[in-house]
Design brief:
single chain; about 290 residues; mainly alpha; MetI-like fold; globular
Amino acid sequence: MAANSHQDLSHTPKHIILTILGTGFFVCLCGLIAFPVLAGLLASFRPGTELIRRGLSIDLNPATMTLSNYRYLFGGNVDSKKYFMWYRNSLTITIISVVATLLICYFVAYGLTMYDFALKNFLFTLVLATMMVPFEILMLPMYKEIIKLGLIDTYTGVIITGVCSASTIFFFRQYLSGLPRDLLSAARIDGANEYSISVRIILPLAKPAFASMGILCAMGSWNAILWPLLVLKGAEKFTLPIGLNTLLTPYGNNYDVLIAGSMFGILPIFIIFLLFQKYIIDGMTAGAVKG
């Protein structure tokens, strides 16, 4: 009886209209999000002069489509060698940053969740408080510390300031708080030490959280430009966003490499998303419901 009434409600004019409006809204939203990517992809197959003349558009004109930008990008010339040097630098920084951030934030969140000790809530409140401070305010004191530590123009100077992310700690804590504490008691009764419990028992259960935060951390590190721009001085150590920005100068703009290189630069994040997308929803929603 209830099933039939639910089925009848789903076919009412009001429900149909709301469904159409909702579908139309999300289709428009997807179009707005996809437009820059599609326009950039099409622009990467046009000469740089065409981009200057017509700007970004989704106009399909076979007469102007060419692979010359990608041939130049992979041609082994001076600009190509610089580009892949920047690409390698970004990959190195991103991989190290993601691994270090996930591990450090996981263990911090594990301690704040699984153990009871004095000032526990106070320490977690301090973590949350740091999320309210804009990066622009912290930038100058962090820069001074990096100078004192002698880490200017090093990858370590770029990575070290972001490995203890408050938002990542908060996310892990919310996820771990949804796991039963009885797991710890059972493991201790079986003779497991604290390291084995955190790494061999709890960590595998947190794979969705690791996947979700791994994607977000990778995106943040891969696209970062302000902090690496402050720390890195030599062109041979530039990351991809900084390197691509140097292609735009008052003396000339290399749009051929800029557009094709920007689209090729999306590839690592896209691959990561495809590999771990099945964990995203689980990781984002697991800490929201308990019981």
